[in-house]
Amino acid sequence: MAGDERSIAIDEAAFVLASHFHDGLNVDERLAELDRLAIGCGRSLDQVVDRVFSDLGFRGNTCGYYDQNNSCLDAVIDRRLGIPITLSIVLMSVGRRAGREMRGVGMPGHFLTLDVESGSYLDAFDCGRQIDVVGCQQLFTQLHGSDAPWHPSMLAPIGPRGIIRRMLNNLAQIAAAENDHRSRIIATRLRSLLPDSSIWERAELARAYEASGDFDQASCVLEAVAADAPPDEAKGFRFAAAELRALLN
């Protein structure tokens, strides 16, 4: 993830992410499976969309939206169920293999796919429905209310690192809500390892360890964060680490 972002294949990165949650996942075998899913797919936008959602039967998981497996690409392929971001990865991956460039769009609240050639936005959660900028704004308003501020910059494409960060955010939030400490630690640890991770994202790993009862590891993380933080913020991290150390006595 630290290299040139143009060299990062999002399907491979998503499988590597999933392998931290699903023991025994073979990334090469899963990539070969995606190759097979794209065999015979035509290059046109309609053909790619039909292949993914009609022929292969991928669809949005409306009944179990917050299921952790919706964020793990291997499970999405096995079950043909996912959320907007993972279904978009399937769409982009099949499209790339068919010779069509598609990019992820991190619109707040609902991930979309941009078909570069046509300029159309696709809602993978709604079977690849094609929408224009106005349609994207309407979808945003439906999700956030008419008072929520909208800006066209919300439709700017994001690269693989941004996609992986958003997937890890989803997984961390789901795990925290379900008191799944192991998954929360995995997700926040992986996010903290991203080359552009913030001080606060790294500190979130300490909170995950603290919630699990591992005060020693939590304090170690905070001390490491303090070493890299600006002086005014480092003092707070060191104080929090000392408080956690006191709980070990």
UniProtKB/TrEMBL annotation:
Domain Protein SirB1 N-terminal span(s) in chain numbering: 45-169
InterPro entries from the UniProt entry: SirB1_N (IPR032698)
PANTHER family for this protein: F-BOX ONLY PROTEIN 21 (PTHR31350:SF21), SI:DKEY-261L7.2 (PTHR31350)
Name of the featured protein: Unannotated protein
Organism annotation: freshwater metagenome
